[in-house]
Amino acid sequence: MAGCRAVEQGTPSAVVDTFEPMLAPTPEGGGPTPPTEPGVEDTNRRRRRVWFALTIAVALLTLGTLAAAFVQVPYFLLAPGSVRSTEGLIAIEGAPTFETTGQVDFTTVSVKKATALQALIGWLDPTVDVVEEDKVLGGQTQDENRERNLQEMADSKQIATAVALEALGYDVGEQGSGALIVNVAADVPAADVLQRGDAVVAAEGQPIQLSSDLVAVIATKRPGDDVVLRIQRTPELAEDVSVRLVARPDDPNRAMLGVSLETFGLRYEFPFTVTIDSGSVGGPSAGLAFTLGIMDVLTPDSLTGGVRVATTGTIDSSGNVGPVGGVQQKTVAVRRAGATMFLVPPGEYEEALRYAGDMRVETVETLDDALRALSSIGGGSGAVERAAPPGG
Hints:
Blueprint: H1 40-70, E1 72-85, E2 90-93, E3 103-115, H2 116-124, E4 129-132, H3 133-137, H4 142-167, E5 173-175, E6 179-184, E7 199-203, E8 206-207, H5 211-219, E9 226-232, E10 238-244, E11 246-248, E12 251-256, E13 259-263, E14 267-269, E15 273-276, H6 287-297, E16 308-311, E17 314-315, E18 321-322, H7 327-337, E19 341-344, H8 349-356, E20 360-363, H9 367-375, H10 381-386
Parallel strand pairs: 3-16, 16-19, 19-20
Antiparallel strand pairs: 1-3, 1-4, 2-15, 5-14, 6-7, 6-13, 7-8, 7-9, 9-10, 11-12, 17-18
Helix pairs in contact: 4-6, 7-8
């Protein structure tokens, strides 16, 4: 009977594994059987797997790129903006105007909410700043920030008009509702009593309409004196406070509050109508440019000496020029536009130089500084002095 074992009689038993796999016949000539080539089906299967993996990878990459391109992140892009002539935006009724050669440009910075992809590209671009959202909006919504910037532009145009007309010898009337506290020094007694946003409507019993009215009252006092101010903090709340005056750093015999002032509710009375079409541009940084542009339109000779001059900087009612920021992007835009000279406020000169190339950069603290710089190219103060006086 056949079984799993075969035992040879008369000898010790030997075990034979009848389930051992059968070996393929040895090919003629001996040696192991060579491996067979993969079949067509195996090759196609491998190709399908590779293509499937590539398709998945491409799809994931595409989805990631689309998400990066459209999903916004909490950053803004500050990039070079526009460079526009002011003269063509200025319309004057009631006074003679003149054709201009050359031009005064105002500069802007493009401010845009960033997507993830744009932020990445912006970090790699030396002409673009990627700025955190809070630093741009300051806790406001985008709509609130936009409204604030448009109001700053409207105020800037009014101040620029007043400064330009006064520089040309026109009489400009001013009205206001008090002296607005803009900043308070930390190391003066006023810091314990006054705060930013307070409107001083009376001092020592005298009504205060303009910031200059309060300055005039302080000028009658000495360091160490107390001055009684009536403060309007809200339309419904007004209170009298007493503030100790301190000596001015440049003159120990003259008193000061130690605050920065503006006229609250400032309104001007112009001898004729000046309109500036600033479009959708917001912010106060075109103040100096609009001042010079108005003067150029009202002056027979070219204020720029017939060349293209760009500027950035605010202007206050005393003709002082202040910084705004974004000078890196503005300098790049101005250089690309082909301007001959770029006027910038103090503190922004060194940065402007880094991006100016061969373009001439001048730092100006006041309108008079700007006119002196323009005089060096055949315009400026000389053009103003040669202009006919108002009514002449």
